[in-house]
Amino acid sequence: MSMKRRITLSLAMTLVGLTAIVIVIVALQFRDYGIESAKDKSKIVSELVRDGLTVHMINGIMDERDFFMRKISSSRNIDELWVSRADSVIEQFGEGRKGEGPRDAIDHKVMRSGEAIERVIEMPDKVYLRVTIPYTAHYMDSPNCLDCHIAQEGDVLGSVSMVFDISEVRQSGMLTILKIVLAAVGILALVVLVANFFINRYLALFESLTDAIKKGQEGNFKVRVETSLKDEGGDVAHWLNNLYDKLNDTIYHVDRRITILIGGIRVKSENPLVRTRQVVDELVAIYKFKKTIELDRNKEEIYDRLVAVIRERLEGSDFALFEIDHQIGNRSVVYSTQEQWPCNLGSEESSDHCRALRTGVNVLSDDFDRLCSHFEGHGSLEHVCIPFRVTERISLLVAVSAASAQELEAIKDRIGIFRDYLEAARPVLESRYLMAILRESSLRDGLTALYNRKFLDEFADQVAHQAARSKVHYALLMLDIDYFKMVNDTYGHDVGDVIIKGLADVLRESIRESDLAVRFGGEEFLVMLYSPTEAGALEVAEKIRTTFANRTFNAGGESLKKTISIGVSMFPDDAEGIWKVIKFADIALYRAKNAGRNRVMRFSHDMGPTSEAY
Known about the structure:
Layout: H1 3-59, H2 65-75, E1 78-85, H3 87-93, H4 105-113, E2 117-122, E3 127-136, H5 145-148, E4 156-165, H6 167-217, H7 232-262, H8 272-293, H9 299-314, E5 318-325, E6 330-336, H10 350-353, H11 355-359, E7 363-364, E8 382-389, E9 394-402, H12 405-412, H13 415-442, H14 453-470, E10 474-481, H15 484-491, H16 493-510, E11 516-521, E12 524-530, H17 534-549, E13 552-555, E14 558-561, E15 564-571, H18 578-594, E16 600-602
Parallel strand pairs: 15-16
Antiparallel strand pairs: 1-4, 2-3, 3-4, 5-6, 5-9, 7-8, 8-9, 10-12, 10-15, 11-12, 13-14
Helix pairs in contact: 1-2, 1-6, 6-7, 7-8, 8-13, 9-13, 15-16, 16-17
């Protein structure tokens, strides 16, 4: 029900209620007025009857009292009038001519109590008032009642009863009520018309305000409040319209500007307030993410936070995060929810064969059947691959699998937010990559690209501790180029550098990924072989020696060959300290040189002092 109908109905019901109350009050007042008028008349009549009968008795004409009673009845519009004698009077004077004893219970009750009784008798077409008034003996009356009657002061000598027709009182009341009802109906109609005239404009304003506020909650601030009022109501409409105009302009401005910041955040709500709040919440989360990772020490910690964000946004979907090094063409798994990700690309193939990395655009399996031939399980799995270039060398790839088309749609809605987090992480990752590169370059020899003495100084003890915990051992090979000073003196340092790089190449070709080659200084190199047998270590050393001896170098148009000497020691077989074992390899190296060079020499404790700290 509309507000207008509710107000009109409430007003009408109020007026009807007030009218009903007035009618009831008037009816009761008319009734009471009629009854009271009849009572007053009955008192007068009773006095007339008493006085008249007294006169008849004094004058000795009691036989003519019937005429007197009829005259009283007709002149006073009394339907019935009779006199009743008390038992004492009947005993003294008899019952009278027509039997003037008590007629009914009311007469008897009045005789006993000495109190008047009034009764209203309601009939369908008539209303009567019965009044019975007692006559009491008083010596003060004139004439003195006690002079004629054998009675005492206050005794009831008789009563007079009258019946009045007060139907016209009810009729007058009904007529009056009818007039009141007609007047009330007229007043009600007039009030409703006047109320509609004055209230309708306020109701129209209220409805317009209600509609505007409702649409404002939905984010529609283009609605206008219309009113013809010029008072405070008009002011309210004007203020709200101005407020909505400002809100609409501000939200439109914010909505346009914020799309520049949100990138791919997809917010489905049509309400601009909800959209703005959701986007701002996401931007705040991205800002906090960025401020947090700026204090992270390395890229691994940043990757952990990225994984946490992706896991939270995907709500249980399987995904993997890959790091791709384009320079060496390698793909490494940063994180995966599955032991074996359903992409059959090898680590060396990722840069060239991954569609997402090659094209630089998102790969969505619902774009085309078997869009990516390397993703397995096409019959049951959908997938999304999101490439992101961090630097010229490094890219990240977020790969997500979905068990259904509905899940895929939900994932697609989150692609933008993933890219926004990646964008936030880009400058920090670039910095961490650069630091890692600088760190790596400071630990590598510039000529050979092998690790340098600084690396050995920082990580040798760490490697030793890890070896002790893991119960593994190392073979230490100390290498030195024979008569290298003569090369520099004869052919120059450029040729010397070529030979040093040649030995570095031989080392890389001869050892495994788990082994470590270090340029120890000048023409000296150190190789750490991971968990070999002693025979195996000596075999590798011999392979390095012979491979290098067979290599030919160009020295200013001349062909030049060089040899190396190698000392071998075992950790922790020869000593528990890694630096002492390195010293032992160095001692074995110089024994090899003293023994004629171009040979491999295994350290033994009889080669020289073993207690010297290195």
